[in-house]
């Protein structure tokens, strides 16, 4: 059993991992930038190490500083959280070369899934259904035009190294293709240092349905159903729920088994998410995330499992604590992402929190690193809290969400809370009738200012 682990992250996800470790009797080391000296994860961990200045590239992304922090504190393993180094295969390799354990998948699996073309090829070979599109990368505009003439418009040009919704451009027609192709390429080059792009058929009314998978790294794997993350702004998730309002038990069992078998086949280790677009009863793979997702708590709520403790278990070489048959859905869960942003344009609003009160009561979970007087630094992501509610069914979860949002107090900065109050008034949200474009349309008509 590990005695001490280091968390290479900050904010709510660092607290999430500290909590899981503490319940397992494992000591924790927080790392932080100079801007985060007063952050909650630093206060809550057993030990902390300052690893650099505010800029992420010199602190949370600094591999030598993080390895040195492990050596100084005697931490035996590193949990990367999400974002930062969590999907950096080179980091995993370095961690392992130093005799430390990476709490996550192998460097090889991260590398395969981090390149979206290789990921798609791998999944296709494993029998996972994919979005129709180019076989591999598309190098020239001429190739792009020929392919699109074949698959038909609209299409989406995507960066093979992409992530976070960047490097993606939609072309509705042949005339739009040139611009979409060239901008996607230059955005990809600027954001990821790799301008390779590929092309997919653009699905017009899909839902974003993702399957949570978990493997022991030795050929056993399970699925923990789906999350519907269709409510998105600029390809970024805003609200997530599980189970998906439109997914039947048969569909879940079928796509879940395909995903679990794929993970078993490659001996995948730890938590992963296989993302699909879902349209007219069909699933189309878009990418796999080889880490814990921001929205993992909705899955934890309905299955009653602790995914972080499970990650730590399998990283130690222990078997998973559940089998597929143990995993039975109980009720419905919804998460909303609360960002320090000002509506209607979602401009980041870092600043000092003058008053904070987290909601509570039955079925309410608040994952947040806020506290009274905390000053949100301007250097990092604007996510400040995740509010997760669990009810016996979707209707009670929605009622509980409204109740919990009403109890929440975050004063001193603007937040996205008013958005959720407004969304809960919508019939489509109440009935679960939305796709990946619903929120953008709604924002255009309702929040124009
Ligand atoms: P990223 O890694 O940048 O998050 P993804 O491939 O996961 O990119 O896609 C993010 C979002 O973009 C999806 O949830 C969906 O809303 C949209 N999207 C991606 N591919 C397609 C497609 N082929 N058709 C329609 N929408 C798409």
Describe this structure in words.
- The chain is built from 15 helices and 22 strands.
- It has 449 residues and is of the alpha+beta class.
- It folds into 3 domains: 4-98, Rossmann fold; 141-201, 2-Layer Sandwich (Dna Ligase, domain 1); 207-447, D-amino Acid Aminotransferase, Chain A, domain 1 (2-Layer Sandwich).
- Strands 13-12-9-10-11-14-21-19 form an 8-stranded antiparallel β-sheet, sandwiched between helices. It has a 5-stranded parallel β-sheet with strand order 3-2-1-4-5.
- Strand 2 (27-33), helix 2 (40-44) and strand 3 (47-52) form a beta-alpha-beta unit.
- Helix 7 crosses helix 8.
- The chain is globular.
- The relative contact order is 0.11.
- The mean pLDDT is 97.
- The site of adenosine-5'-diphosphate has 20 residues, from strand 12 and strand 13.
Q: Provide the CATH superfamily of the largest domain.
A: ATP-grasp fold, B domain
Strand order of the largest sheet: 13-12-9-10-11-14-21-19
> How many individual domains?
3
In the CATH hierarchy, the architecture of the largest domain is 2-Layer Sandwich
Total strand segments? 22
Q: What level of helicity do the residues show?
A: 25-40%
Question: How large is the count of helical segments?
Answer: 15
Tell me the CATH topology of the largest domain: D-amino Acid Aminotransferase, Chain A, domain 1
What gap, in angstroms, lies between the N and C termini? 55 Å
Q: What hetero molecules are bound to the protein chains?
A: adenosine-5'-diphosphate
Largest sheet: 8 strands, antiparallel
Gyration radius (Cα, Å) is 21 Å
- Summed over residues and divided by their number, the pLDDT gives a mean of 97
General form = globular
As a percent range, the share of strand residues is: 25-35%
CATH class of the largest domain: Alpha Beta
Catalogue the unreliable spans: none
GO molecular function: ATP binding; biotin carboxylase activity; metal ion binding
Enzyme class: ligase
Protein name: Biotin carboxylase
Pathway: Lipid metabolism; malonyl-CoA biosynthesis; malonyl-CoA from acetyl-CoA: step 1/1
